[in-house]
Each structure stands twice: as structure tokens, then as C-alpha cells.
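Why does residue order matter? Because the sequence determines the fold. Keep that principle in mind as you read this record.
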Amino acid sequence: MPSPFPRLLAVCILGLIGLAMPPLATPGHAQADRCPKLVATSPFLSPPRLTALPAAMPQPREVSLTFVGHATFLIETAGGVTLATDYNDYVRPAIVPRVATMNRAHSTHYSLNPDPGIEHVLKGWREDREPARHDLEVDDLWIGNLPTNIRDWEGGTIQNGNSIFIFRAADLCIAHLGHLHHILTPEDLGALGRIDIVLAPVDGSYTLDVDGMIEVLKALESPVVIPMHYFNPSTLERFLARLADSRYAVQRQPSATMMFSRATLPTTPTVMVLPGR
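Structure:
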């Protein structure tokens, strides 16, 4: 009778390989373990905290998202947590958020004088160019980040100069791509896991070019894409035309605020254009 040892050894090796591989986004999967909080042991990720009651409370399994303008969104959870992305001195939400995230690309993405009422100010970079690491939980909101590189004004590269921030609430994962300047690697995609809503810069010049951004969005396979950082209507329309050619549906929303839940996510990839100033 042949020894079972070789077969057992092979099974063990395959199991170890499976554990070592990063989790990859799978279209149509709704299981909770696709969100990055459960792969937070990755060296790429980190989290934040929250405060204040939003004007219109989301229902228990909803998240409210408002496009304030440029690259700033206000995220509000059912638990009353408020967060502003790319918080700066020019475009701010009407309320003081409990949490603010910032990136360093230029002054419309950060503030040197954030409102003192903000409990948690999270920078997407460190001055020593080491990766910023956030892993913060505030009530029903979790925040992490994936460091990315950016170009400097001379065309060089600033290692770990910005971050993609990831927010999880109501079993939804929202990724703010920030001032993304490069394609995401398989390791990046594995660290991000399942992303349900992508807030994507679509200017095509200051950040990633249009072809590169479409490549990133296709790799993420998220049900919802919300454009930002486009400066003028013609730039936005150019991006929408290209994305429509890639079989994305395009919906123009009448309000800058939308409620999202897992149950109401679109079944086909959809670009939702929110009015913003």
C-alpha cells in the first residue's frame, strides 16, 4: 500500500501557497472578507476615528456620500461619524468632520491649519518618505490606507508621497484614489481587496492619464465609480466617453449627496456623476 505521506505533503504545500497569496478582487462576491480591514496585517494598510451628527442620518446599513468638490467628499455613517477626504483650505464641507484625510500633491489636497475641532487628521504621507500607516476604527467607521508614489515638479518620483484611503462602513468599502500617478500592482490590488465604490481622479494629466485610470478601474472591478478632480466639464466628458466605450453605464445624479447600501449597488459597473463645486 503506497504511503500517504507524499500526498499529505503536497496538500500542505498548496495550503501554504494559498495563505501566502494576496486576496484578489472577485466580481460579484459579497463576502465580508474581501474588504481590506480583514487583511489589515498587510504592511500597506492602516485606520482612523469619528464625530458629529450628519444633517440627514443614513439608515443602519447605509452610508451617505456627498461630493463637496475637487477631491473632497463628506462621508457620513449611520452611527454619526463624519469624514472629509483630501481636507484643504479651499474646498471644505459645511460641517467640521470628526476625521479628515489629506494628501500632499498640492495645496488643494491638504491643510496646514485644519480646524481644531477635527478629532483625527490623517496624512497620507510622512516627511521621511517612509510609508504612512493608518489602521483606525471610530465607532462604525474603519479607515486604512495604501501608500502610493507621486511625481514631483521636476518629473522625479516621491516614494510613498500619497495614499489611497479606504473606508469601511455598513459592509461597504470605499476607496479614495487620491492623487494617483501610477498603475496599481497585483500586490496593491490584493491589499485593497473588494472595493465597492471608487472615488477616482479623472483629469488625465495632473494625475494618471485617462488610459491608465481606466486600466486601474477595470482591475478594481468596482460596481460604482464616482469621478472627481476634473477641473472643467470638457475633461469630465472626455473621460465619460472613454469609459462608456469600456461598457460602463453612466448615470448623472441630480444631487451631490447619495445614500449607498450593499443591497442597492448596481449589478453592472456604473459611473455616477455627482454635481459638485
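Helices lie at 5-20, 186-192, 210-220, 233-244.
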